[in-house]
Amino acid sequence: MSDLKTRFLEVYSVLKSDLLNDPAFEFTDDSRQWVERMLDYNVPGGKLNRGLSVIDSYKLLKEGKELSDDEIVLSSALGWCIEWLQAYFLVLDDIMDGSHTRRGQPCWFRIPKVGMIAINDGILLRNHIPRILKKHFRQKPYYVDLLDLFNEVEFQTACGQMIDLITTLVGEKDLSKYSLPIHRRIVQYKTAYYSFYLPVACALLMAGEDLEKHTNVKDILIEMGTYFQVQDDYLDCFGAPEVIGKIGTDIEDFKCSWLVVKALELSNEEQKKCLHENYGKEDPACVAKIKELYKDLKLQDVFAEYESKSYEKLIKFIEAHPNQSVQAVLKSFLGKIYKRQK
């Protein structure tokens, strides 16, 4: 494990301890144990990419200078706020979707004795973020900007989740609702803001930058987040389960995936009929027909072309940015996701 990741995980323990001893609430042993178990189960379990990228980005903005202990703690605390936000979304998402597993273990609400208490746990996770920000950033000149940023991004993500839920209403499986602009809107709001823009925006604020002056950085990161989700959609169908760590179910789940949107665009009437008849069905034979159709439509080639065009476009935008250290941050993000297999 890298040194930075070790430090990052140490900061998690400190933040958790602060929250479990928050003077605003008188904890009992039972309630403290519940919150600790809930945090350990839901917050640090993922790849931690979003959180770690706050530290990476801040370091690049400081042009590679060694970070002081204080800077490591503060950038880690912001990284953890993003991981807390992610945990809050996922706990509630899993309930809405009726999911069974997350990160290779049962969803939190599926754990015996948790059930619908998980909804309140989600609310608690959300409320921990301003507690962390208050404790560590209250005296900073950018404190209000941080609060504003987290509120803004949470609102955008919740709206993205809403479009996703109402577009894929259960019982109303209507493929004609799916199109590239709809796919793009869902992805932009539901994923790109909090996964791509938020970590860099946190680092920029810490570095004393004004976010209003960096709208082009936001645009590039949203574009990158869209490209990332298209990769995700592609890997759900064509990635190897042992590499991506899960068995894709976008076809069965009637997801508004880039692949189905592209397939609708490229299909003749006969193929469209096949899509409408088989998409969103649990039956493995139906799933196989959809995958076969994707192969007939050469969606693997269509994706490869999309990937290289997106990369060229992003590099062009990034290299047009006047600030070298901001360029370095954006290139580092792109480098991590370009041609990824998982």
Automatic annotation (TrEMBL):
<dbReference type="InterPro" id="IPR039702">
    <property type="entry name" value="FPS1-like"/>
</dbReference>
<keyword id="KW-0808">Transferase</keyword>
<keyword id="KW-0479">Metal-binding</keyword>
<dbReference type="GO" id="GO:0004161">
    <property type="term" value="F:dimethylallyltranstransferase activity"/>
</dbReference>
<dbReference type="GO" id="GO:0005737">
    <property type="term" value="C:cytoplasm"/>
</dbReference>
<dbReference type="GO" id="GO:0045337">
    <property type="term" value="P:farnesyl diphosphate biosynthetic process"/>
</dbReference>
<dbReference type="InterPro" id="IPR008949">
    <property type="entry name" value="Isoprenoid_synthase_dom_sf"/>
</dbReference>
<dbReference type="InterPro" id="IPR033749">
    <property type="entry name" value="Polyprenyl_synt_CS"/>
</dbReference>
<dbReference type="GO" id="GO:0004337">
    <property type="term" value="F:(2E,6E)-farnesyl diphosphate synthase activity"/>
</dbReference>
<dbReference type="GO" id="GO:0046872">
    <property type="term" value="F:metal ion binding"/>
</dbReference>
<keyword id="KW-0460">Magnesium</keyword>
<comment type="similarity">
    <text>Belongs to the FPP/GGPP synthase family.</text>
</comment>
<dbReference type="InterPro" id="IPR000092">
    <property type="entry name" value="Polyprenyl_synt"/>
</dbReference>
<keyword id="KW-0414">Isoprene biosynthesis</keyword>
<protein>
    <submittedName>
        <fullName>Farnesyl diphosphate synthase</fullName>
    </submittedName>
</protein>
<dbReference type="Pfam" id="PF00348">
    <property type="entry name" value="polyprenyl_synt"/>
</dbReference>
